[in-house]
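SAMPLE LOG
Freezer: B-3
Tube label: C17
Construct: single chain, 529 aa
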Amino acid sequence: MTFRIFLLLAFFGSFTFQISAQNDPKWDDTKSKDWPAEAKKVSIRSTIDGSEQPAYFYAATSAGPRPLVISLHTWSGDFAQKDTVVNFCIRKGYNYIHPNFRGPNNKPEACGSDLVVSDIDDAISWAQANSQTDPENIHVIGVSGGGYATVLTYMRSKHKIRSFSAYAGIYNLVDWYHESLGRKAKYAGDIAAATSGNRDEINIENAKKRSPFFTAKPVTDRQNSTLAIYCGIHDGYTGSVPISQSFNMYNKLVSDFNPAAPFARVPQEYINLMIRERTMPGGGDQGKILGRKIIYKNHYQDKISLTVFEGGHEMPPGDVLAHIPSKNILAIGDSNGALEYGWVNQLKTLRPADRIINTCISGNTIGFDNQDKKELNTLRNVDQILLKAEGKPDAVVIMLGTNDCKAIFAGQLKEVPENLDKLIKQIKSKTTDNRVQTPIFIVSPPPFGEDNTLADKYRGGSKRVEYLVQEFRKVAEKNKCYFIDTHSKIKTAYKYLTPDGIHLLAEGQYLLASVIHDEMNPLLNADTR
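STRUCTURE (predicted):
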């Protein structure tokens, strides 16, 4: 709770007043119910109480599996409230559903109840059963009360969901009750009515139960999901929800994933500064989102992100579904990809909408038992590697060969291209269906340093890796794969990019990722299914 809110509460603490009904604010236009003809009103039977719950639904007409977007209504709205997200879905050819989940958040059966969570899950199941939905491409989005419901779904849904986008959300009902009470806003009465049945009295324990902030951890594994939290810097001043709600929720989730990730958390002094100044002095140019200046952003890996933009209590107009359909990319490699700052994680920063599964292992080879370890032989483990994609990947990126060039394998150098050929064929046999082949990108291994800079086990590797670059190109062409030559593009500057002649510094890893991204991007973007 901010000091400003504390003063308000202290001032009003000696007075008792009735929370009066107010008109819905401009951002929460519950009166407009203008829906395109393509969206149909449907009824979904609740799996908890058997009641019929309404929704608006659009089934994509495009052939083949398509993404599914679940758009969640605002605090005072219901399923019939106008929702511009449906227009994006119709244009893009995505499946769409706008469930009711018990309507406005002013009664016990609504506002984060067990019925709400069940209704949203029921809507997802119903939409999947009544459309051609790609099960790997399900996305939830909402603003204000919809942002609240989005994070509630992240914490409690049983479904496997690719992405969650929460704008201007409320995540701690206890704090928001007191904040709204101090402003004489109707939301305090709504929370009280939802938690106790009485608009003048809040049930604190019930409010906590309905708050994502007080949920211990997501009920299902969200390792392969992304949650993006957005808020406008002026919310809480010109809007109804202080931005501390978003900061605190983000920090809580980072701690849930990794308590020892301090740099991913927002420091309290930054939070205080942004609340007080409504900007981030010294923050520099953070770019834009949906045409708005970014004031502050942070993230934990590719799992959770926070973006504070120039604006208020809103979801800015624009393509809020630009991250869909994201690609499911499987990365196979060795230590240069396994490093925390390696090329795979660098690629994630260049392709933030994609889910990139990193299976790189230090010491990995294409087809040798490096260090007499079977787990470092990709050919032996290809089935287990593909399982990590949890479904058919949209692309496979392979950067191997460095460890195959070790001195111990020098006498078997000609086997390496043959092993790559076998690996490609195995991957194709597992990922091709209905004659549609998953694109495979063969990335050349990076250069080696001079022998006087290398450990003994890598001596002579420079010539061996140059041989493999040419042979890998031939193998890729033979198998109708895409070849990406990073070796030639970084060779001149290589000595400045490596501390040991084998592993690249962060700057070198970024260059590798940039070359890969630039080569992949037009090919993957051309694949719109």
